[in-house]
Write a sequence for this structure.
């Protein structure tokens, strides 16, 4: 039970900068879609259990348009098991995929690793999203790292937002935390390349500031192993923290 509680209150990030992918735990598809600054026009579903959407005859795969991505995000994607997709610009682009490219995409969804860099000129894709249990352990490729850091800034804001607070007249109002700027999160790139946990269960907050501590846990491919390492490391003082000055509305990263 303790591991289950921890799983919901931490985010694990391991960045492979050269191969342009992130291994993550604690970030689900709805989080991703709310956070990325450039929304995909369409998603080609390589592996899924979504019952709506459209069918492309050339690839014999389903896809969703920008109009029903929100419907997909509202579905219980974490129950799908395998859930893999790439974004693309237009259905006509799908019809131009070669047999070799389609084979590479199917291999990618099955093995969760590409035969070559998974960004296709014909598709114009910015992302590749691969998971066997959404939010438990995801592998996401980013053509532009700025998209990842922007997404993380939104996710962290949602996790730390205090909800409704009383004002002087007794009414309640929603006071969301500002998004963490990408340049602040880029300061954690070294830790992310080693494998880092941001802990919201050990977050501290008062009227002046919010502090989210972090620990380096290593490059891990198993969620239980990652959680065990986090539980061990978190008994020690944090290696850094992300801090929000609530009055100024400004974030900073403190390391060491």
């Amino acid at each position: 039970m303790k591991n289950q509680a921890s799983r919901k209150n931490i985010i694990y990030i391991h960045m492979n900068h050269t191969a342009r992918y992130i291994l993550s735990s604690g970030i689900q598809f709805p989080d991703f879609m709310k956070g990325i600054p450039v929304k995909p026009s369409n998603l080609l579903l390589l592996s899924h259990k979504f019952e709506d959407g459209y069918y492309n005859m050339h690839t014999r795969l389903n896809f969703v348009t920008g109009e029903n991505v929100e419907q997909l995000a509202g579905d219980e994607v974490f129950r799908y098991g395998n859930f893999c997709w790439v974004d693309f610009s237009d259905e006509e682009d799908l019809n131009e995929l070669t047999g070799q490219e389609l084979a590479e995409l199917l291999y990618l969804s099955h093995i969760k690793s590409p035969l070559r860099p998974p960004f296709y000129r014909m598709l114009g894709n910015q992302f590749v999203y691969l998971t066997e249990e959404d939010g438990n352990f995801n592998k996401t490729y980013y053509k532009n790292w700025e998209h990842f850091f922007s997404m993380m800034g939104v996710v962290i804001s949602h996790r730390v937002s205090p909800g409704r607070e009383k004002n002087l007249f007794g009414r309640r109002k929603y006071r969301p935390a500002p998004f963490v700027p990408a340049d602040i999160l880029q300061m954690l790139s070294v830790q992310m390349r080693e494998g880092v946990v941001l802990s919201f269960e050990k977050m501290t907050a008062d009227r002046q500031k919010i502090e989210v501590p972090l620990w380096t846990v290593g490059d891990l491919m198993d969620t239980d192993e990652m959680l065990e390492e986090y539980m061990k490391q978190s008994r020690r003082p944090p290696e850094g923290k992300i801090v929000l000055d609530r009055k100024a509305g400004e974030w900073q990263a403190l390391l060491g």
